[in-house]
Write a structure and sequence with these properties.
The chain has a single domain (2-115), classed as Methane Monooxygenase Hydroxylase, Chain G, domain 1, CATH 1.20.58. Helix content is 64%, strand content 16%. The chain is built from 4 helices and 2 strands. It is globular, with a radius of gyration of 14 Å.
């Protein structure tokens, strides 16, 4: 799931993260994991899952606006992430339950834990 998250998160990382700043990378990956989970929940059957998915996406949108992104930029970013999930990972149904990033030398290592529940 770690590699999947990094690929999925690329558009968000490009906008939010400074590659030299581990905390900004962690923040971008965390927001990307929330978008992933929201999109995954929207794909599931049931009103509760769809409601939680929509609420999660809305919370991320509000956070991105609070970080200084314009509403149209946020909408474009969420759309790009949704398209990436649909085209690159159409059969991936896991939810991300934890994300961490660490630096070792000049490389960053990402760990994403996931579940099917």
């Amino acid at each position: 799931m770690s590699d999947t998250l990094v690929v999925f998160a690329e558009p968000l990382i490009e906008v939010l993260a400074d590659p030299a700043d581990l905390e900004s990378c962690r923040g971008a990956l965390t927001l990307a994991s929330l978008v992933w989970n929201g999109l995954t929940l929207l794909e599931r059957e049931g009103e509760e899952a769809e409601s939680l998915g929509a609420e999660t996406i809305e919370q991320v949108e509000n956070t991105l606006i609070d970080l200084g992104l314009a509403k149209d930029e946020v909408a474009d970013l969420i759309d790009a992430l949704a398209e990436r999930k649909e085209t690159l990972f159409p059969d991936e149904i896991r939810l991300i339950i934890g994300v961490d990033a660490q630096r070792r030398g000049d490389r960053m290592f990402v760990h994403a834990a996931s579940t099917y529940e």
